[in-house]
Amino acid sequence: MKILILIWLLILLPSTFGANVKGTVYDMELNKVENAVVTVNTIPEQKIVGGDYIFELESGDYIIKAYYFEKGVFSFNTEENITISKDGNYNLDLFLFLDLDEEGIVSELDEVSKGLEEQNNYLYYFIVFSVIVLISGLVIRFRKSDARDDDDLNRVIEIIKKEGGRIHQKELRKRLGLSEAKISLMVTELESKNKVERIKKGRGNVIVLKK
């Protein structure tokens, strides 16, 4: 009789203490991850590679982990705790998240950050250099322009002197070969410097050199 009871207990034991835990591994976009590695901390550890997994567990507390490496650098992982208190089937889907604590991730982000910083430095120096070149060009241009203007004003003074200290503005324009507007501006500037005086005569002006 004892032997029959023992045999009966041995037959019932797997169904009494056994449970199946299964599920599917998904990424953050809810796509099935075919190459995920799923483990459970039994003794010895059980491991399955694939998008679906199933473990046979006895009663107790377990940690089921899943991870996946993308291009050997970016690590996606997750872990879930599960308690098996009775037999039956348990469904536990796993969702992988980017692990920002991985050394590879940190190194990769550091490289990206360093690259962006270098690009910003290059851009900063390029902008500063461009501004300096632009300002230098404008200064040189203005200096040349001022020099040309001074030369033109000196020519006006010399022509008036050769004409005995006075000349018609129309005649001055012929001598210099410049536009009427340019001649008028030059005479106005000389007047502001108290070098000449413009006297209205008929329809034109007479430019008189001041002493």
Description:
Helices cover 46% and strands 32% of the residues. It has two domains: 98 residues, Immunoglobulin-like, CATH 2.60.40.1120; 101 residues, Winged helix-like DNA-binding domain superfamily/Winged helix DNA-binding domain (Arc Repressor Mutant, subunit A), CATH 1.10.10.10. It starts with a helix and ends with a strand. The chain is α+β, with helices and mostly antiparallel strands and 211 residues long. The longest helix is centred in the middle third of the chain and has 60 residues. The mean pLDDT is 81. The strands form three sheets. It has a five-stranded antiparallel sheet with strand order 3-2-5-6-9, with no helix packed on it.
Overview in brief:
Helix content is 46%, strand content 32%. By secondary structure, the protein is an alpha+beta fold. The protein folds into two domains: 2-99, Carboxypeptidase-like, regulatory domain (Immunoglobulin-like); 109-209, Winged helix-like DNA-binding domain superfamily/Winged helix DNA-binding domain (Arc Repressor Mutant, subunit A).
Highlighted features:
Arc Repressor Mutant, subunit A; 211 residues; 4 helices; alpha+beta; Immunoglobulin-like; 12 strands
Biggest sheet overview: 5 strands, antiparallel
Mass-distribution shape: rod-shaped
Kindly report how far apart the N and C termini lie: 148 Å
Provide the domain count: 2
Q: Averaged pLDDT, please?
A: 81
Q: β content, as a range?
A: 25-35%
The secondary structure category is: alpha+beta
Say how many strands there are. Answer: 12
CATH architecture of the largest domain: Orthogonal Bundle
CATH topology of the largest domain: Arc Repressor Mutant, subunit A
The CATH H-level superfamily of the largest domain is: Winged helix-like DNA-binding domain superfamily/Winged helix DNA-binding domain
CATH class category name of the largest domain: Mainly Alpha
Task: Give the neighbour order of strands across the main sheet.
Answer: 3-2-5-6-9
**Can you give the helix content as a percent range?**
40-55%
Write down the secondary-structure element order: HEEEEEEEEEHEHHEE
